[in-house]
Structures are given as C-alpha cells and as structure tokens.
Amino acid sequence: MALPKDDAAVLSARWTEGVLLKRDVFSTVERGRFKSDTGEVDAVLRRLDQVPIWSYLLARHLFARERRALALARDLHVGPKLLWAGQHALVRGFIDGVALQMAKPHGDLGYFRSAKLALRKLHRAGICHNDLAKEQNWLRGSDGQAYVTDFQLAACFKSRSRLFRIAAYEDLRHLLKHKRSYAPAALTPMERKILARKSVVASVWLMTGKKVYQAITRGLFNFTDREGGGRRLVNDAPVLIELIRKNPDVRDTAIVAFADRRTGVGLYAFVEADQASLEKQLRSELSSAKGVKPPEHIQVVHALPRDAAGKPRTEILQLVAMNQLDLIEPMMKNATDRAFLKDILESRKNLRDRFNFEAADMDSPRPHPTGVITREGG
Questions:
Q1: Beta bridge pairs of residue 84
Q2: Which of 299, 320, 224 is nearest to 265 (CA)?
Q3: Which of 8, 45, 1, 47 lies closest to 24, judged by CA?
Q4: pLDDT at 342
Q5: SS3 content of the chain, % helix, strand, coil (to 5)
C-alpha cells in the first residue's frame, strides 16, 4: 500500500530517514530528521504504507486517535509535539530521554511529581491516554522530567463525563503502579487507596474484554508487544538461550529484540565467553536445531553488564542492539560497565540502520544529538 501523493510529497521534501525503531501490523515507526517551519529537527515518523491489508482498518483507527490526541496536546509539553500530520503518516517531535523500564527511577520523587503533573495537564485538556500501564509509554527526559508517548489508544473528551472520569482514574492508577515499583515509600495513603481500588470498568475489562483483545491481537493478528519485542522475543528467545547455554564455553547469555527493516523484528544474542571465534560455532549449532530461527546477530563479549543482583542489564543491551548508543552513557555505573561498553562498541553487529556514530572513549564529550539514535518507538 503506497502513501497518498500528498503525504509522499511532504515526506520526500522534508523527511530524512534515520533508524527503524518499530514495525508491526499497525504501523512502522522510524527516527530521522524533519524540516519544520523553524528548521530541521530530530523527529519520529509513524506511517501506515507497510501495514497489511487485513489489519488496515484497525491501524487507521489507531492512527486517527493518535493524530487527534497529539494535535490537542500540542502545546502542553508533556509528550511529543505534533510537527505534521497527513492521511497515512504523521511526524512528531523527538523527546531526548529513555523509557521507564530503562531509566529505572528508583526513589526519584521529582520524576513522579512531574509525571502526576503531566497527567493532570492531559486530563485538563480532555485527553485520557488509556495505555499507561506500559512502562515504555512513560519516558524520563534528559531533564529528569516525565513525558508520555504513543497515543494510539488515547481518547479525547469534550466534557468531564462519567466515562472521562473513569478513564482518567485508570490513567492515574497505572501511574501509581509504576510509582509503587520504583518509589513505594513515597506513596501517600490516598494513593495506596487508589491502587487498591480498580474502577468497575477496569475490573470488567480484565475479566472479559482483555481476553477478547488478546485473542484477536495474539491469535488473529499474531501480535505480541512485550516492550516492542513481539512473538520472537516471547517465544523464541527462551529456547535460544537454553540452547546457547549448553555450549561449555559459554558462561551466560542474554537476548533482546530490535526492529529490522526486512524481517520486522530481529533478535540479538549477547554471549559471555572468552573466545570471539565462538560465534561461528554457536551459529552452526543453532542453525542445526529444529523449530526455532537463530538470532540475526550473535556477539561474544568478555562480560555482560550486570546489576547489583548480578542479573544482565538488558536495558543496556537493548540500546546497543538498536544503536541508541548516546543514551547509554548516563546508565554506566562502574568501571566494569564502561569496559563492557568499550568492548561492545568495537564489535557490535547491527550497523544497517543508524546515524553516523563515532565510537569514542566514554570519558570524552557526548556526541552531537543529530548524530545519534533515539529510543522512542511507541
């Protein structure tokens, strides 16, 4: 399905392709540069021209909801600014920051204060997001403030009707669930009361509508969105990890997903071992295994980055796999992490979709923001 001529003309003149962030049956999302009325800026493009015909009507509905919500929230400064919208494509501004599950704002009360303020601004404008249970839809900006993204399920209301109040309540309850995960001691008695009480609509949805929704999206549409990883991350990655760990030279492994222009979703396996030549052997072993497709990329590293509990820091590996290297530096906590990053920059595999990036010592100044990649994929 081709873009309408008007949309294609605008994008041809004003859009510079950068990095594919996400592709599923509802849209393609990519990062690039957009020539706005005030100059060229970093931006994110959502387009429908690669959506399959059988999911087009739902994709078009979701697109229309996002376009309307972004237009209404344009000047609120709590999410991406709508820069341009056509019939089958829209361009929104880029927010310099990382998703909640990567930022992990433990004990950051300022972040959650700003998140509640952002939600209040949206609700005052008559916008309910309706998808804030997902951590990837909450961003922590480089300024430490909270932003929201991915308005495909947003609803816009002209009055504070009962339905609006229920949706706004659920938005708040989902925010408080994240606050409970990262700053539980800061929850107020009223916030704890809200967390303990779902709305009737939410309770009914969990018992009925959600099951139907999952049956349609995961069954009919073959769609699973675990932090954008899809069915391969959910179904194939655990099998591949088990197979890789059977090799006696492997100490540990972790697999993350990345958007791929040809296959939609690719898998990237990071293998902790001493022999760089092990990659060829592992690929041969995985290729001979039946029932699961090998990862698109296998990279052997001397040590995986780990958290205080000793678990691999998959949020860092995810950024490496998607070439969002500029966002990693603030997440480096010790010399071991920095050594890992230097090691991985020199031999990373996924170089097909990227802006120019010069691998540099992490103690040197950060690259210019126009030469690096973003994490915003919703």
A1: 91
A2: 224
A3: 47
A4: 75
A5: 40, 20, 35
